[in-house]
Amino acid sequence: MSFQYPEKHEKSAYIQLLILCGLALTGLMIFSLIGLVILYAMYGQAVLIDPIALASGDPKYLSGLKIFQILSSVGLFLAPPLLLPLIEGKKIKNFYDFKKTQPSLTALLILIMIFSMPFMEWTALWNQKMHFPEFLKPLEVWMKAKEAEAMRMTIVLLTVNGIGDFLVNLFMIALLPAVAEELMFRGGVQRSFNRMFGNPHVAIWLSAFIFSAIHMQFYGFLPRILLGAAFGYIYVWSGSLWYAMLAHFLNNGFAVGMAWYLQSKNLPLSGVEQTFHFQWYGYAISLAITTLFLWKFKQNTNYGKQLG
């Protein structure tokens, strides 16, 4: 079975991608402007003159930083894919396939995310050991600087001082990206690529590549592209974007929960992405079990049953 989308009365896939890009740029500018107005109201012109202070880790700027981060995500990732079906004159739930979830598939998805964690940690560790030849050293230095900057920002955002901060982080880092990024990359970008090429595998991996690259964290590129591809296949097999959103939420929510736990134990937040420590066979078992559950997930969907 080929995972095809209805094309009747729709603009071409190329036009849809252009519309998505245009909406994303416009949304980012509009919501960033709204964010700057809010920051000005909160802190005065000082934060506009020295925007680096916002990400300095100073507790007084933390609320403003989180507000700006939320607004940026809404403008860049959430608003564009919500507007696209409206432009096409279609209902959002039909355009992106929000079919009702099944308890058995949901349970399998949770098991997939749990058992994949050790293997994903191994890919992250392997990715972090990446080195470039001498003539590409300037690029490596730049990438490491961007990675350090992203890590510093992540630690600032993950800082919590109570249950209120934890709930805000759960929304900002887990729920909002799960909904917005899956709508954008699996719902919007992957859908358009599939219409272009008529091949779900090409659509999935191209979308996963863009999903990983746009985060600008090069030493986490491999695990992120694998996650993006997994979300893409889950979407294709199930025919429902709910499962991809749930998987994304579980992945990010675990990091938020671990950050809260580490802080409660006065442990450094730098350990939030290095939770597991296994021998090589532990990672191999994780990969084997994850693959088994992914296969089982596929077999229990209508997609898998029709292929079988």
Question: What is the compact description of this entry?
Answer:
The protein is mainly alpha-helical and 308 residues long.
Fold topology:
Elements: H1 13-43, H2 46-49, H3 62-87, H4 92-95, H5 103-128, H6 137-158, H7 163-197, H8 200-213, H9 221-238, H10 241-264, H11 280-299, H12 302-307
Helix pairs in contact: 1-3, 1-7, 3-7, 5-9, 5-10, 5-11, 7-8, 7-10, 8-9, 9-10
Written description of the protein model:
This protein is mostly helical and 308 residues long. It is 75% helix and 0% strand. The chain has twelve helices and no strands. It has helices spanning 13-43, 46-49, 62-87, 92-95, 103-128, 137-158, 163-197, 200-213, 221-238, 241-264, 280-299, 302-307. α1 packs antiparallel against α3, α5 packs antiparallel against α11 (280-299) and α7 (163-197) crosses α8. The longest helix is centred in the middle third of the chain and has 35 residues, at 163-197. The protein is globular and about 60 Å long. The N and C termini lie close together (10 Å).
